[in-house]
UniProtKB/TrEMBL annotation:
Major localization class: membrane
UniProt-listed InterPro entries: AAA+_ATPase (IPR003593), ABC_Ni/Peptide_Import (IPR050388), ABC_transporter-like_ATP-bd (IPR003439), ABC_transporter-like_CS (IPR017871), Oligopep_ABC_C (IPR013563), P-loop_NTPase (IPR027417)
Domain of life: Bacteria
UniProt organism field: Pistricoccus aurantiacus
Alphabetical UniProt keywords: ATP-binding, Cell membrane, Membrane, Nucleotide-binding, Transport
Similarity comment: Belongs to the ABC transporter superfamily.
SUPFAM superfamilies (alphabetical): P-loop containing nucleoside triphosphate hydrolases
Protein name in UniProt: ABC-type dipeptide transporter
Higher taxonomy: Bacteria, Pseudomonadati, Pseudomonadota, Gammaproteobacteria, Oceanospirillales
EC number: 7.4.2.9
Cellular localization per UniProt: Cell inner membrane
Membrane topology of the entry: Peripheral membrane protein
SMART domains the UniProt entry points to: AAA
């Protein structure tokens, strides 16, 4: 049994003119010690997925359907009191901006000790010892000195190491890292990701890495999900998807990498932009931007325009694309609860 199982997750935001569906039919699993990447453009639903796993979405957001099972326990509908036994203890999260995560008026030591004492019945002295140990694990120099410092006294890379140390305080089974290196320069990014990978491998911690950086995903994760407009449109082993992407959107993301362009030429890009979630195109949400929406005669495929694609298997990769299914001559799985016509509005 997988450590984390997400099935048909449906997340909505109640707005004045109706519900906006932020996640649609989201299904994936994570084994103990496995590293999973979630990629896609801004607005694809990556961060909403991360927050939903820990039930951190706030009103007007809510879980409208689906299941999140952690170590055999259903989390959807669990009370806040019982969720607190899991959130931060067995499932930790690393947020994008450490300055927004750390409390600016409390020292690093106070924040770490407070976190430990909220979940364990230990003395302040023992909590401080554990905090020092975790700061040492994330390679922070002079950890005793750092305990008495405030967040503004540390560099961006140092603050992110503190966040990772806090995430490791209670020896979690899963760490969810939401764009953990966004605010850092390139050299510090590489150090932080190498550190996170080493810590997860050493402690057999499952990792869900949310990012738009395919290079990082390729280096760190074993499996990856590609999201578009609130849905998973491709999933499988990271190396297989990077080497042989099947979905036109995934191909576009990889072709847009700087190293894929001819030196001196313009960078490749996917035309158009991510559609608004309250006004999705009919059928496949990607079809207005897709270079394969037309058949050999130059006419749009009716299925692309009118039917939400299910998954088709290509080796170990699952991809949701009518063109791929046609090319492979393989049957397409249906998506549970999906309509053949669009869900253009909430």
């Amino acid at each position: 049994m997988a450590l984390l199982e997400v099935k048909e997750l449906d997340v909505r935001f109640a707005l004045r003119h109706g519900d906006l569906r932020a996640l649609r039919d989201l299904s994936f699993s994570l084994d103990r010690g496995e590293r999973l990447g979630i990629v896609g453009e801004s607005g694809a639903g990556k961060s909403v997925a991360a927050f939903t796993l820990l039930n951190l979405i706030s009103l007007p957001g809510y879980i409208a359907g689906g299941s999140i099972r952690f170590d055999g326990q259903e989390l959807v509908g669990l009370s806040d009191r019982r969720l607190r036994r899991i959130r931060g203890k067995r499932m930790s999260m690393i947020f994008q901006d450490p300055m927004m995560t750390l409390n600016p008026v409390l020292s690093i030591g106070e924040q770490m000790v407070e976190c430990l004492k909220a979940h364990r019945r230990i003395s302040s002295r023992e909590a401080k010892r554990i905090a020092l140990d975790k700061l040492s694990q994330v390679q922070i120099p002079s950890p005793e000195k750092r305990l008495d410092q405030y967040p503004h006294e540390l560099s961006g890379g140092m603050r992110q190491r503190v966040i990772i140390a806090i995430a490791l305080l209670l020896d979690p089974d899963i760490i969810i890292a939401d764009e953990p290196t966004t605010a850092l320069d390139v050299t510090i990014q590489a150090e932080i990701m190498a550190l996170l990978l080493e810590l997860c491998e050493h402690n057999n911690v499952g990792l869900i890495l949310i990012t738009h950086d395919l290079g990082v995903v390729n280096q760190v994760t074993q499996r990856m999900l590609v999201m578009y407009a609130g849905r998973i449109i491709e999933q499988g082993p990271t190396r297989d998807i990077i080497d042989t992407p099947q979905h036109p959107y995934t191909r576009g993301l990889i072709d847009a990498l700087p190293q894929m362009a001819t030196p001196g030429a313009r960078l490749n890009q996917i035309p158009g932009s991510m559609p608004s979630l309250n006004n999705l195109p009919s059928g496949c949400a990607f079809h207005p931007r897709c270079g394969f929406v037309n058949d050999e005669s130059g006419r749009p495929r009716p299925a692309c325009l009118n039917q939400v694609p299910g998954f088709v298997n290509v080796g170990d990769i699952q991809t949701a694309c009518h063109w791929v299914a046609e090319k492979q001559g393989k049957p397409m799985q249906t998506r549970t609860g999906e309509k053949s016509q669009s869900e253009t509005s909430p």
